[in-house]
C-alpha cells in the first residue's frame, strides 16, 4: 500500500521514492528547515524515504500553517531533487570549465569549424594568395 | 584571387540551417542554478552570472528534457545561447565560457589592494554604536607608532598588486594628522621607486578638518571619506559629540573639502541604525540635496559595541523594509531625470548585468579578506578585515593574522590565513553551493563568526544570507516588471564598470 503524506501531532511527514529522489537532495532540502524545525529522515520501507519536520517551538501550528508547511516541504523536495540532478549531471563540465578558466590558456582549443567570412569570401584562399 | 559566391540569397548571413547542427531535441545540461523569485516566476543563473527568468515549471521541463526544439524554439535558443544547455556533451564554445568565468574572478589576479592603517584609536565623538574608539589624550597608547607605520608601509609594498590603496582610519584619523603626513610622504617615495600606483584615503568625521589639512590633501591627492547618517535629527543622535553638533561640523567639512579638493574627492557613508529605519525618504533626500550622486545603504555592522547596545539592535526584516522604501525614493529621482544610485544595488547589478565583478570585500568569493584587504591596527596587530580588529577589541583574536613584526609570507599565507581559506568560497559552503545567487553574492567568514559563533555559518538564519538573497531577488523582480527600472539599473551598472 503506497504511503500518504500526512500531518500528525504537529509533525509534517512526506514520503519519497528512493528510485526518484536522491538522499543528497533530501538532506540539502532539510538543511533549510533546521533553524525552526526538528528534522528527520528514515526509511519507511526499502524503497521509500520517510521525511519529517516538527517545529522546535512548543507552540502548535494552526491547521492552515500545517497545510502550508506540507505543501512547501513537498515542493522543496522536488526543487532540491531537480537541483541535485543538474549538479551531478554537470559536475564534469563544471570542473573542466573552472580548470580552463584558471589554466592561463594551456588547455584552450580552437573553435570547431572553418574560419570564413560571412560576406562570402574564402578566407583560407585569401590567406594563401 | 577572390572567390565570391553570388548565388547566396543574402551576402551577409548564412542560411539558418547552417547553424542548426542537430535536428532532434536532444541536449545536455550545463552547470546552472535555480530559484523561485515570485509565485509565478523562477530564475536560472549560469556559472558566469547570466540569468533567465522563466514561468513556473520551466526549470523542471528543462531538467526532464521536455523541451521541444520547434515548439519551444525561442526558449531553446535562449538556453543554448546563454550556456544553460548544449547540444554536445562539451559545448563547442567552452573556452569562451571559461574566459568569462576568468573575467568574473579577475579580482584574484592582483591580491591585496586595500591596506587600512588604524592610525589612532582616539576619538572626540562618543557614537553609541561605535565599536572601537577611545576618548582619551593618551597618544602613546592609542596612536600607531612611527616604527609600526614603517613596517606597515613595507608590507603594503610587498603586495603583488600593481596599485595599492592606503586608507587611514580611526578613532578619528585626523587626531594623528602628523603621523598621516609622515606615512603619506614615505609611501609616495616608495611608490615612485617601485613603480606602483598609490591611492590615499582619510576616513574622518570632519570635525577637525581645516584649510591647512585640506591644502595638504590637495597637494598629495588624498581622498576624503566621511560619515553622514542623514538629516541633523538622525545624524546627531547616532553620532554624539559632546558640546557640539556632529552634523553641522560634517556639513561644514563637506562644503570646505569640496571647495578645496573638488566635488568628487569627498564621499560619505551612512550607517543605518534603529533610529534611521523611520527615515528612509528623509535620508535619501539629505544625500540628494547635498549634491551626492548616490548613497550606500549599509546596515549596522554586528561587531563590537554595536551588538551590545539594544539601541542598535534591529531585525534584518526591518532593514529590508527600510531599504525598499529608500530604493523607491531613489528611483523617483531617477524617473525625474536625475542620476542617483544606491551603491549596494549598484554592486549587485554590476555582477548581474555585466561580464565583470566588483572588488567589494563583503561580496566576493573567495572572500575579500586577505585577498582584497588587510588591516594594520594601531598597536601593530594585523587583521584580516576592519571588522576583525573590531572583534579584537572584544578580546576575540580569531582573525588576527599576526603582527607587523611577522614576515609577509607568515601573515598572508600562514596557518591562520590557510584556516580562513577553507571557508572563504561560497561555491563550497552548504546552502550556498546550489544557490542561484551564488555568483552575485560572497562569503564572509568574519560575519559568520561574529553573528553565529563559527566561521562556516548557518544559512537558514543568517542575516547576511537573508539580506543579500532578498535584495538580489527584489532587484531582479523590479527589472523584470518595469522596463524603465531596467534601463536605470543598466545605467548604474554601466557607470560602475568604467
Query: CATH topology of the domain at 6-93 in chain A, which one?
Result: Alpha-Beta Plaits
C-alpha geometry of chain B: globular
Shape summary of chain A: elongated
Q: How many helix segments of chain B? A: 19
CA radius of gyration of chain B is 25 Å
Strand content of chain B: 5-15%
CATH evolutionary superfamily of the domain at 6-93 in chain A? Ribosomal protein S6/Translation elongation factor EF1B
**What is the oligomeric state here?**
heterodimer
Account of the 3D structure:
The complex is a heterodimer of chains A (129) and B (498). Chain A is α+β, with helices and mostly antiparallel strands and 129 residues long. Chain A has a domain at 6-93: Alpha-Beta Plaits (2-Layer Sandwich), CATH 3.30.70.60. Helix content of chain A is 41%, strand content 21%. Chain A has a four-stranded antiparallel β-sheet, with helices on one face. The longest helix of chain A is centred in the middle third of the chain and has 27 residues, at 63-89. Chain A is elongated and about 80 Å long. With 498 residues, chain B is an alpha/beta fold. Chain B has a domain at 25-104. Chain B is built from 19 helices and 16 strands. Chain B has a nine-stranded mixed β-sheet with strand order 12-10-9-8-7-6-14-15-16, with helices on both faces. Chain B has a three-stranded antiparallel β-sheet with strand order 2-3-4, with no helix packed on it. A two-stranded antiparallel sheet of chain B has the order 1-5. The interface between A and B is large, with 39 and 42 residues.
Amino acid at each position: 500500500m503506497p504511503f500518504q503524506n500526512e500531518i500528525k501531532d504537529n509533525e509534517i511527514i512526506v514520503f519519497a521514492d528512493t528510485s526518484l529522489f536522491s538522499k543528497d537532495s533530501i538532506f540539502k532540502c532539510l538543511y533549510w528547515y533546521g533553524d525552526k524545525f526538528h528534522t528527520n529522515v528514515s526509511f519507511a520501507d526499502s524503497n521509500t524515504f520517510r521525511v519529517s519536520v516538527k517545529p522546535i517551538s512548543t507552540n502548535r501550528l494552526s491547521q492552515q500553517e500545517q497545510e502550508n508547511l506540507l505543501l512547501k516541504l513537498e515542493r522543496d523536495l522536488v526543487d532540491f531533487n531537480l537541483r541535485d540532478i543538474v549538479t551531478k549531471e554537470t559536475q564534469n563540465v563544471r570542473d573542466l570549465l573552472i580548470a580552463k578558466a584558471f589554466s592561463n590558456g594551456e588547455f584552450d582549443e580552437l573553435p570547431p569549424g572553418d574560419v570564413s567570412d560571412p560576406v562570402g569570401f574564402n578566407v583560407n584562399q585569401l590567406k594563401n594568395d | 584571387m577572390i572567390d565570391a559566391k553570388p548565388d547566396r540569397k543574402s551576402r551577409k548571413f548564412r542560411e539558418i540551417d547552417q547553424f542548426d547542427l542537430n535536428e532532434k531535441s536532444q541536449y545536455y545540461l550545463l552547470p546552472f542554478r535555480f530559484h523561485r523569485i515570485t509565485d509565478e516566476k523562477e530564475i536560472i543563473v549560469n556559472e558566469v552570472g547570466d540569468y533567465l527568468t522563466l514561468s513556473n515549471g520551466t526549470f523542471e521541463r528543462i531538467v526532464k528534457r521536455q523541451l521541444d526544439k520547434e515548439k519551444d524554439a525561442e526558449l531553446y535558443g535562449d538556453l543554448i545561447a546563454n550556456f544553460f544547455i548544449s547540444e554536445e556533451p562539451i559545448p563547442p564554445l567552452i573556452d569562451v565560457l571559461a574566459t568569462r568565468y576568468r573575467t568574473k574572478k579577475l579580482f584574484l589576479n592582483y591580491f591585496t589592494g586595500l591596506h587600512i592603517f588604524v592610525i589612532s584609536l582616539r576619538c572626540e565623538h562618543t557614537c553609541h554604536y561605535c565599536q572601537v574608539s577611545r576618548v582619551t589624550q593618551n597618544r602613546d597608547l592609542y596612536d600607531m607608532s612611527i616604527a609600526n607605520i614603517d613596517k606597515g608601509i613595507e608590507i603594503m609594498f610587498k603586495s603583488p598588486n600593481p596599485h595599492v590603496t592606503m586608507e587611514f582610519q580611526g578613532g578619528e584619523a585626523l587626531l594623528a594628522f602628523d603621523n598621516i603626513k609622515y606615512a603619506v610622504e614615505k609611501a609616495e617615495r616608495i611608490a615612485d621607486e617601485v613603480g606602483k600606483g598609490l591611492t590615499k584615503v582619510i576616513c574622518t568625521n570632519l570635525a577637525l578638518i581645516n584649510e591647512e589639512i585640506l591644502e595638504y590633501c590637495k597637494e598629495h591627492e588624498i581622498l576624503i571619506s566621511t560619515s553622514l547618517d542623514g538629516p541633523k535629527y538622525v545624524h546627531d543622535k547616532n553620532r554624539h559629540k559632546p558640546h557640539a553638533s556632529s552634523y553641522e561640523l560634517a556639513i561644514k567639512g563637506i562644503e570646505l573639502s569640496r571647495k578645496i579638493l573638488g566635488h568628487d574627492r569627498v564621499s560619505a557613508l551612512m550607517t543605518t541604525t534603529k533610529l534611521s529605519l523611520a527615515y528612509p525618504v528623509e535620508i535619501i533626500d539629505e544625500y540628494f540635496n547635498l549634491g551626492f550622486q548616490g548613497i550606500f545603504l549599509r546596515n549596522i555592522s554586528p561587531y563590537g559595541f554595536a551588538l551590545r547596545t539594544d539601541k542598535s539592535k534591529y531585525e534584518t526584516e526591518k532593514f529590508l523594509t527600510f531599504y525598499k522604501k529608500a530604493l523607491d525614493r531613489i528611483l523617483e529621482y531617477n524617473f525625474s531625470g536625475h542620476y542617483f544610485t544606491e551603491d549596494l544595488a549598484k554592486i549587485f547589478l554590476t555582477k548581474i548585468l555585466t561580464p565583470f565583478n566588483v572588488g567589494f570585500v563583503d561580496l566576493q568569493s573567495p572572500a575579500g579578506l586577505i585577498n582584497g584587504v588587510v588591516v594594520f591596527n594601531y598597536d601593530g596587530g594585523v587583521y584580516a578585515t576592519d571588522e576583525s580588529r573590531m572583534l579584537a577589541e572584544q578580546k576575540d583574536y580569531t582573525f588576527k593574522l599576526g603582527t607587523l613584526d611577522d614576515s609577509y609570507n607568515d601573515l598572508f599565507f600562514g596557518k591562520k590565513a590557510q584556516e580562513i581559506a577553507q571557508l572563504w568560497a561560497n561555491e563550497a559552503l552548504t546552502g550556498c553551493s546550489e544557490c542561484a545567487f551564488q555568483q552575485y553574492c560572497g562569503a564572509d567568514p568574519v560575519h559568520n563568526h561574529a553573528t553565529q559563533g563559527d566561521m562556516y555559518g548557518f544559512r537558514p538564519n543568517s542575516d547576511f544570507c537573508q539580506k543579500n538573497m532578498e535584495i538580489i531577488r527584489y532587484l531582479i523582480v523590479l527589472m523584470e516588471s518595469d522596463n524603465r527600472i531596467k534601463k536605470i539599473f543598466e545605467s548604474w551598472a554601466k557607470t560602475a564598470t568604467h
